[in-house]
Amino acid sequence: MIETQEHKELRDTVRRFVETEINPHATDWDAAGEIPLHDLFARLGKLGLLGISRPREYGGLALDYSFEMVMAEEMGAAHSPSFGMALGAHTNMATPALARFGSDALRAEFLAPAIAGQMVASIAVSEPHAGSDVAAIRTTARSDGDDYVINGQKMWITNSTQADFFCVLANTGDGDRHGNKSLIVVPSNTPGVTVGGKLQKIGMRGSDTAPIFFEDVRVPKRYRIGDESRGFTYQMQQFQEERLYGAAMAIKGLELCVTSTIEYTRDRQAFGQPILDNQVVHFALAEMQTEVEALRALLWRATEAYVAGEDVTLLASMAKLKAGRLSRTIPDQCLQFWGGMGYVEESIINRLYRDLRIVPIGGGADEVMQGIICKLMGIAPGRG
């Protein structure tokens, strides 16, 4: 896919935002366990970066999805991967189905302020016993006249303590677990919604992640996104953008592992020479960068197909799997070359090592991606 001048201009805008508004504060946000999302999203909203591919009538730029990928890739260069995850939850996880299938009134009430940066959005799908197995969720939304009454619990919810609304997947019927679910917008200030304590995580410490509890939460049925019982299908479609975003954001984070390691090993002396001058080190770094470029090529092939309206389930799953694999190996190899300094939290490689570890877990674990790929290749068990 050829990058246009418009792509380059957007890339420059995002890069400046990362350098001036994110990187200087990354350490403080990690220590605080929270990022001031309302403030930062308001600034991003003024730049038009929260609705890049969303409809103009709701404040979006109506650009094709390749521009979303440019933003995601540049956000990956931030010294705070936590912010990129928070942003992705808002733009590419909680709102794609709302933008595509929500009623005009629902989009005016929630999508427009999310694009403007006036509201923070959160996706509430996973549960303590249902992470990658989305169909196993137990949260229910019982019909009661013109309302739904929601009961259940959600787990590992990004942006949870600051969210103005959640995009909740709940069971609205019985029977087939793939055909009994609906996506429902639930404002966070609705009576019966409780946000639990922040989870203490190995990485992504700047991201406020917590469980959500719903106890007899009453919301009008007009808050449902699209048709009843189509929620699982909508969520699977929504996952494609989430997985493309996750793969795109990993690219620059992985490159930062490589470039920061080059800088450190060039300056660090051992046995009378820079560590970088050891062949085992510079050969390894060359191969790492080659792997990153292979991921970038796969991602952009998938993006081009997505923009063309093709089903990219296979390519998006492959890109997500590749990003997950590299997010485990590259930070680990690089940290080894930093030696003792890599083991202390003040080093950039330490944060990247911890934060990128979520890539092969969140948004569908590596093993789930492998299962999807095998199914689409026709080599899943029982299919020959």
Description:
Keywords: FAD, Flavoprotein, Oxidoreductase. There is one protein chain. The chain has twelve helices and ten strands. It is α+β, with helices and mostly antiparallel strands. It has three domains: 5-120, Orthogonal Bundle (Butyryl-Coa Dehydrogenase, subunit A, domain 1); 122-227, Butyryl-CoA Dehydrogenase, subunit A, domain 2; 233-377, Up-down Bundle (Butyryl-CoA Dehydrogenase, subunit A, domain 3). α1 runs parallel beside α4 and α10 (313-338) runs antiparallel to α11. The longest helix is centred in the middle third of the chain and has 37 residues, at 231-267. The protein starts with a helix and ends in a 7-residue tail after the last helix. The model has no long low-confidence stretch (mean pLDDT 96).
Number of discrete domains: 3
- CATH H-level homologous superfamily name of the largest domain: Butyryl-CoA Dehydrogenase, subunit A, domain 3
Compute the number of helices.
Answer: 12
Share of helical residues: 40-55%
Percent strand equals 5-15%
The coarse overall form would be: globular
The low-confidence runs, each spanning 5 or more residues with pLDDT under 50, are none
State the order of secondary-structure elements, H for helix, E for strand: HHHHHHHEEEEEEEEHEEHHHH
Quote the average pLDDT.
96
The biggest beta sheet is recorded as: 4 strands, mixed
GO cellular component, one term: cytoplasm
Family: Belongs to the acyl-CoA dehydrogenase family.
Cofactor: FAD
GO molecular function, one term: acyl-CoA dehydrogenase activity
